[in-house]
Amino acid sequence: MSVKIRLSRGGTKKRPYFYIVVAESTSPRDGRYIEQVGTHNPLLPKDNPDRVKLQVDRVKHWLSVGAQPTDRVARFLDAAGLAKREPRQNPQKGKPKKKRLEREAAAAEAAARKAEGGGDAKPAA
Question: Are strands 3-12 and 52-54 parallel, antiparallel or unpaired?
Answer without folding.
Answer: unpaired
